[in-house]
Write a structure and sequence with these properties.
- 40% of the residues lie in helices and 14% in strands.
- With 83 residues, it is an alpha+beta fold.
- It has one domain (2-80).
- Strands 1-2 form a two-stranded antiparallel ribbon.
């Protein structure tokens, strides 16, 4: 299934495969051992923002704003006229 997802997202312009970019160690995980803690979500959101920005052309980059909001959940908000 993972191979299929990677291939599918490589073939689609508006999709990308994003691997979890933080260690699966206790300090990054919530007490349930499954969900990430806010710090891990923040790291992941920053990684996503860079990946998305790198895929855009210059015109798209000029119309995009990225905000990362911290809290119990981390929200990556994209404002772009081309979406």
């Amino acid at each position: 299934m993972l191979v299929f997802l990677k291939k599918f997202t490589n073939d689609e312009k508006r999709c990308m495969y994003v691997d979890i970019d933080y260690p699966l160690e206790p300090e990054y995980m919530a007490a349930d051992g499954f969900h990430p803690r806010p710090h891990a979500c923040s790291l992941w959101a920053r990684h996503l923002a860079v990946m998305i920005h790198d895929r855009l052309d210059q015109k798209e980059k000029k119309t995009m704003t990225i905000s990362i909001h911290k809290g119990s959940l981390c929200l990556l908000k994209l404002n772009a006229s081309f979406l």
